[in-house]
Design brief:
The structure is a single chain. With about 160 residues, this protein is α+β, with helices and mostly antiparallel strands. It is about 35% helix and about 35% strand. It is globular and about 65 Å long. InterPro entries: SmpB, SsrA-bd_prot, SsrA-bd_prot_CS.
Length: about 160
């Protein structure tokens, strides 16, 4: 798929450290006008946020959208629960994953696509501490190999 004028606003990099990412879905979000302005300004935080399937709808919890400076009385609660827009087939699939156990719904990034605010939602399985250590060890070994390779090539 082409890069349909996507502008990434925020990413949840910690999710890649804490979870194995199984599948990804793109969803719209139901927002108020002042929230959209605040998100466009980059004042959003996905840390500690998660999604749940309740009553055949997907809800996003703990996404912090800072109040818009010029919003006055129209500003909403920064941590309010927000509805995600997915089609019925996707919601049923997500509900099946979550009911299976061990899986959770984690937002990976929030971005603008063709002027609309979208969120990338992932079906993820939690990593154990030894999994995290293993990934860190592999990255360190790869870095060391690349460093050694670079030194040997420069020396020639």
């Amino acid at each position: 798929m082409a890069e349909d004028n996507i502008k990434i606003i925020a990413e949840n990099r910690k999710a890649y450290h804490d979870y194995f990412i199984e599948e990804r879905y793109e969803a719209g979000i139901v927002l108020a006008g002042t929230e959209v302005k605040s998100i466009r300004a980059g004042r959003v935080n996905l840390k500690d946020s998660f999604a749940r399937v309740e009553d055949n709808e997907v809800w996003l919890y703990n996404m912090h959208v800072s109040p818009y400076e010029k919003g006055n009385i129209y500003n909403k609660d920064p941590l309010r629960t927000r509805k995600l827009l997915l089609n019925r087939h996707e919601i049923n699939k997500l509900a099946g994953y979550v009911q299976k156990g061990g899986y959770t719904l984690v937002p990976l990034k929030i971005y603008l696509k063709r002027g609309l605010v979208k969120i990338e939602l992932a079906v993820a399985k939690g990593k154990k501490i030894y999994d995290k250590r293993d990934v860190i060890a592999k990255k360190t070994a790869q870095r060391e190999m690349e460093k050694e390779f670079k030194v040997r090539n420069i020396g020639m």
